[in-house]
Fold each of these.
Amino acid sequence: ELKVEQNPLFLSMQEGKNYTIYCNYSTTSDRLYWYRQDPGKSLESLFVLLSNGAVKQEGRLMASLDTKARLSTLHITAAVHDLSATYFCAVDNTNAGKSTFGDGTTLTVKP
Amino acid sequence: KAGVTQTPRYLIKTRGQQVTLSCSPISGHRSVSWYQQTPGQGLQFLFEYFSETQRNKGNFPGRFSGRQFSNSRSEMNVSTLELGDSALYLCASSLPPADSYEQYFGPGTRLTVT
């Protein structure tokens, strides 16, 4: 059974600081996703990572994938308040349907 | 381009009743997946439909069922509702797997069972 673990689950950081969210998964997969969810809202797709060594960046967020270590990271650079949200990673088990999600990391950026 | 739409957005039902939720995917998307989100269990995969066929199903009891129509719209049904079925139900659409893996989520239907 595919398991996806995120850490930390809660993250409070100050504006301007950097931090990394980690996503570990238990079995081989070739697709990893990062999503953002604001309170009471649906999921917004941030990144799709398809191969070992893939790195994608959008604004202050950068995601990377190491399939050998079964690890993805979401790096936040110079955080701003608008980044406060819950971030989920999800991994596809190709033969068992769509994504298995991590528990989410709730990020709070304080001034 | 219109996004994924779900109806209704909010629903209150009583234990033992049944409910049907609807999802209209983005135009041209033929794959629709359903997820349940609860504070305790997080986001869990329910099932996936492609070209009117259920391709995969998550670990949910048979009370949860779904279908997809020829226009790719999808419905899910929950019979004999239980208090634990209270959740946000999200549907997501995507292009055929060979074209794109990215899923686009709808706003969700928040179901409350009393």
Amino acid sequence: AQTVTQSQPEMSVQEAETVTLSCTYDTSESDYYLFWYKQPPSRQMILVIRQEAYKQQNATENRFSVNFQKAAKSFSLKISDSQLGDAAMYFCAYRSRSRDDKIIFGKGTRLHILP
Amino acid sequence: EPEVTQTPSHQVTQMGQEVILRCVPISNHLYFYWYRQILGQKVEFLVSFYNNEISEKSEIFDDQFSVERPDGSNFTLKIRSTKLEDSAMYFCASSPDRETEAFFGQGTRLTVV
């Protein structure tokens, strides 16, 4: 069964600095998707960025980028120029492309932005 | 921008009662999901629904739970005989296909007292 692990329950970063959130996953499949979702205090889950496993190029979305290391099964999220609005719970997630439909989430990392 | 909407935003119910959580997925989406998040914990998959039937369910989704798409637009989660441990945030999500991320609603906070 696939699993997603986020080893950092909480992190803090100074406003305007860069922070990297870690995620590792376990799967026997070669084709899948990886996501980072943000959950602010409003509790709604918002997609931050997605990565297709068959693409070697790391996804980027404005200040958010990922470091996808397929062989190492690692998928970290880098937030540049951190802003107060980035404070939230961040979930790493996995979805198989060929098998079941569900998205599997990690336990999350709570990110604090220090003014 | 289209969004998944859930009602109610907060539901309080007495232990043993039945509750129905409602969701309106994005209109052209084909895959529907329910997830649960006990306060401060991970987001847990409950069930996925495709082509008017359950495509997958987790161990959590036992006989106490059921889902329905009664009218082609709404997608409901029914919890029978609620227990204290059913208290959680319940998220509905939908996606247009299996190659796209799921779009989540704002959640329904269920409190069982």
